[in-house]
Write a structure and sequence with these properties.
The complex is a heterodimer. Chain A is an alpha+beta fold. Chain A has helices at about 25-30, 45-55, 75-85, 95-105, 110-115, 130-135, 150-165, 230-240, 260-270, 275-285; strands spanning about 5-10, 15-20, 65, 70-75, 120-125, 185, 210-215, 220-225, 255-260, 285, 305, 305-310, 315-320, 330-335, 340-345. In chain A, helix 8 crosses helix 9 (about 260-270). Chain B has 3 helices and 4 strands. In chain B, strand 2 (about 35-40), helix 2 and strand 3 (about 65-70) form a beta-alpha-beta unit. The N and C termini of chain B lie far apart (about 45 Å). The chains are: A alpha+beta, B alpha/beta.
Chain lengths: ~350, ~100
């Protein structure tokens, strides 16, 4: 793919400009040249882009770093163009930048995430007071359509991964892919959680505005219509152990997105987040006898007392709260063995 | 009415996307297969074992003197001492980590 005939934008630092006869031609060209996710975008005209960046108060020349696998250098300017195309407002850019800052760390292993046959997609979780102010929801249908800004922010992150990381077409080798690769973002419902917010378990203060990214192979619904902690935990363990939902990698980051109702049942049963992580790690191990044919990663399995560890340690199992309040459905985010969950503070103009 | 659009990619990608060589790697010198000692660096996943088995057959058929496997965890880099050892014992390494 060559884009040709581009010129540096006046006053720009990193992004090229191309002229078109009209808006429809420009939109078609962006799509045909793999610069979108296939859906219509807000056209990043020179004028709109300049207004958008000016409204963020951030310096367009600021460099985040290379985005794997293409190793395009992400700058505030380029990420802003992606956010504009995705339908974000300028105030959302700090969240998108934080997500990318976290994802390009080597420990996240973005190269593997962007190129694997696995349908994995990074989930962006927003914590802190700013989430509500920005309209990023942790409530009902937070990962579905709605008038919240989750969709646009998640889409902006994806467009940056596609365009700056060059993960288009045959570079992304996903066998089937996933709808999560269009947009995958939500906030934690901190007010409805019986526990301190997720980001405090990662070393931040409650009032910090933080984006956490974690690679999710698939999101498995756990329907558990119980009002007792022991019954709910039993169903959670069955969900984690279910063969076919994942390969029991014995490594990688896993996450439970508990509905506020489910979280409250566990808290009422005396469970803290830390106790929950320890218990799930210990109990979710899969008996080796249940996997008589092994599986592709069997060579990397960690087997203790005849049971395959589901991940590396209790600290690799994370717990957050989101969704509507009824204690019916929670979601288990099945991880992948490449890389680990990362977090970064939301970018602000003074940075 | 004409319109000027900012492209969401680095300027260098607009000219030549996905450079053939990554910035932190040097050019890879060709190694004749005939008589070569070759190591296949792979994780231990079944899919990669299938590929390395096929590759070994073809390399030996093409005259390679020796083809060995080096297993590597997908989650951690190989230690430097292992890389140094491989560099000392083999003429070429084919790295197939990932899937």
């Amino acid at each position: 793919m060559r884009h040709g005939d581009v010129t540096p934008r006046e006053g720009a630092t990193t992004a090229p400009v191309r002229s078109f006869a009209g808006a429809d031609e420009a939109a078609d060209w962006l799509r045909e040249n793999d610069l979108t996710d296939g859906l219509p975008v807000v056209l990043p005209t020179v004028e709109r882009t300049a207004e958008f960046i000016a409204a963020t108060g951030l310096s367009p020349a600021t460099v985040l770093g290379p985005v794997e696998p293409g190793r395009g250098i992400a700058t505030v300017e380029l990420v802003a163009v992606c956010a504009l195309m995705a339908g974000c407002r300028p105030e959302h850019l700090g969240v998108v930048l934080a997500a990318l800052e976290a994802m390009i760390r080597p420990a996240f292993n973005l190269r593997a995430i962007q190129t694997t046959t696995n349908p994995v997609a990074p989930l962006a979780i927003v914590n802190g007071p700013l989430a509500g102010e920005l309209g990023i929801s942790g409530g009902r249908n937070a990962l579905g359509p709605g008038r919240h800004w989750n969709g646009a922010v998640g889409r902006a992150i994806r467009l940056a991964l596609l365009n700056i990381g060059q993960a288009h077409g045959d570079v992304d080798m996903a066998t089937l892919g996933s709808g999560n690769k269009y947009s995958f973002c939500l906030a934690e419902d901190e007010l409805s959680s019986p526990w301190p917010p997720l980001h405090t378990s990662l070393g931040y203060e409650p009032d910090d505005d933080v984006v956490t990214v974690v690679s999710i192979e698939s999101l498995v619904n756990c329907c558990a219509v119980f009002d007792r902690a022991d019954a709910l935990l039993d169903m959670m363990l069955k969900t984690m152990r279910a063969p076919g939902t994942h390969l029991n990698y014995s490594s990688g980051s896993l996450i439970w997105i508990l509905s506020p109702g489910h979280a409250q049942i566990l808290a009422d049963g005396g469970w803290t987040r830390e106790e929950l992580r320890e218990y799930l790690f210990e109990q979710a191990a899969v008996p080796l006898a249940d996997m008589p044919f092994g599986n592709s990663p069997a060579g990397d399995w960690r087997v203790v007392d005849g049971r395959i560890q589901i991940t590396g340690s209790p600290g690799d199992i994370h717990v957050m709260v989101a969704g509507s309040s009824e204690p019916l459905h929670s979601a288990y985010g099945v991880g992948v063995p490449m890389g680990h969950l990362q977090s970064a503070r939301v970018w602000r103009p003074q940075r | 009415m004409s319109v000027r659009v900012v492209l969401p990619i680095p300027v260098e990608f607009a000219r030549e996307p996905m450079p053939a060589l990554l910035p932190d790697t040097g050019p890879i010198a060709p190694v004749p297969v005939a008589g070569a000692r070759i190591v296949l660096v792979n994780n231990r996943w079944r899919s990669m074992k299938i590929l390395s088995t096929l590759l070994r057959e073809r390399l030996l058929a093409a005259g390679a003197r020796d083809v060995e496997d080096q297993a590597a965890l997908i989650t951690e880099p190989l230690p430097d001492r292992v890389l140094d050892d491989l560099g000392g014992r083999f003429d070429a390494a084919i790295v197939g980590l990932g899937n």
